[in-house]
Amino acid sequence: MPRVSETVPRAGRDTRGDPAALERLLDRITADDSLIGETLSTLRDRLPGYELVPDDALAAAVVRNVELSRRWLLEGQDVSSAPIPEAEELVAERRSQGVPVGTVLTGFRLCMSLILARAVHDAPADGLSPAEILEVVARLTALGDAFSTRVLVAHHEADVARAASDVARRSAWVRDVLTTRMDPAALRAGAESHGLPAQVRVRALRARTARPHDDGAHAVAERALDAWGRAHGLRVLTAPRGQDVVGLVTDAAGRSGGCHDATERAVLAGDVAVLALGMPVALDALPDSFLDAGRVIEAAEATGLAGVVDRERLGWRAAVADSPETTELLVARHLAPLREAGDFAVPILEALRAYLDHGLSASAAAAAIPVHENTLRHRLRRYRELTGFDPHAADTIVELRWVLQARPLWDPTTDPRAG
Predict the structure, then answer these.
(1) Angstrom distance (rounded) from CA 188 to CA 28
(2) How many CB atoms lie within 10 A of CB 221?
(3) With 269 labelled, which of 46, 87, 344, 357 sits at a CA distance of 20 to 30 A?
(4) Which residues, other chains included, contact 190 with Cβ-Cβ below 8 Å and sequence gap of 6+?
(5) pLDDT, position 305
(6) 3-state secondary structure 284-312
(7) Which candidate, 311, 312, 383, 370, places its Cα nearest to that of 344?
(8) Predicted pLDDT at 197
(9) Which DSSP state fits 40?
(10) Which residues of the chain have pLDDT under 70?
(11) Which pLDDT tens digit goes with each residue over 29-45?
(12) pLDDT digit string (tens) for 196-216?
């Protein structure tokens, strides 16, 4: 390649050259089959990774690059806006051959450097002036930059499209495995593709988003669930479904998902209000676990539980959602009579809740409200007078705990028929 100083035009010399010279130069390069052999030899010698690309594919790429150079120079395309479909074609081809994008860019640059070297070497013989040679160098260099940028953009777009497709396939499989009895072969294939051992035990999950009406609430909740799983060494696969996020959870060792040492402090970053876990099952029994998770989330919401909840944490509260008739009976027995106290019904309820929440300690309950201990005891006596039930009796305590969990927002000032 000549030095730039040798191609700079001298003062007073006509630098316009022959208008047909550039086309003659490009015709010469296009017809020179030795360029393909030189390019293949250079790429094979200097670029590990291109051994994955067949010779005919590389030869086609050289022809494509020569034609692109010709179009770029003869049509005077604008560097900033001209489409370069060859970039998308190259990315698609090399991705299918397993060639990394960095190697693709280096290979393209090597090929263009050989084309540029031929152009600079042959240009004087074809009648290009020094100024025109500099213009060829500048424009082919700009083409290399524009092409490289477009390759990176196309590669990123392909990554995004592939990720979206992977997410869509995973979500569809997750919803199917939770709600249908899948064919064993399809079940095994899906489990393998998602990194689940064949004999793993799993739990279905249903998560209620903390802000269901916000745009992107499902995506935020899925990220929070993934972070929760990683924090506790669990494998989590999720998918949006209606207002919820559903999925399955397990761990790498094959133990059933969920851990109660993390239950109370797992708030899932405020993005998930309730995470309900079904019973641990084999993979082919996930629909049973999913039904169980549905009952768990209903019971958790009915009794005011938040965070990570399963049957073990629900305990007796699981029966609240399963027995609405019992709840209505207890409302009539323990809550409805308080309406006779008028406005004083609200302080009575406050005292009952505090008394139960503080281990039946009147002093602790009074401090929590806060009122004097004698005031709290007076309110408990008033409850006994209105209902006929002793708030210190074991049966009454169980029934009060039930009804106050089932009706945490019960309003004693509403119409009695609304009880």
Answers:
(1) 59
(2) 26
(3) 357
(4) 173, 176, 177, 182
(5) 82
(6) HHHHHHHHHHHHHHHHHHHCCCCEEECHH
(7) 383
(8) 79
(9) H
(10) 1-17, 76-82, 251-267, 269, 415-419
(11) 999 889 999 999 999 98
(12) 877 788 999 999 988 877 888
pTM of this prediction? 0.60
Q: Which of 104, 102, 139 is nearest to 120 (CA)?
A: 139
Query: Which tokens hold the place of 287?
Result: 């629909």
Q: Hunting for tokens 């060829």 — which residue is that? A: 136
Burial category of 66 from C-beta neighbours within 10 Å (exposed 0-12, middle 13-18, buried 19 and up): buried
One-character DSSP codes across 115-183:
HHHHHHHHTGGGT--HHHHHHHHHHHHHHHHHHHHHHHHHHHHHHHHHHHHHHHHHHHHHHHHHHS---
Torsion of CA 298, 304, 308, 309, to 10 degrees: -50
Q: Taken in order 87, 92, 97, 101, is the CA torsion positive or negative? A: positive
| The residue type at 327 | T
| Residue pair 342/327 in contact by the 8 Å Cβ criterion | no
CA–CA distance, 257 with 332 (Å, rounded to integer): 40
Amino acid (one-letter) located at 38: E
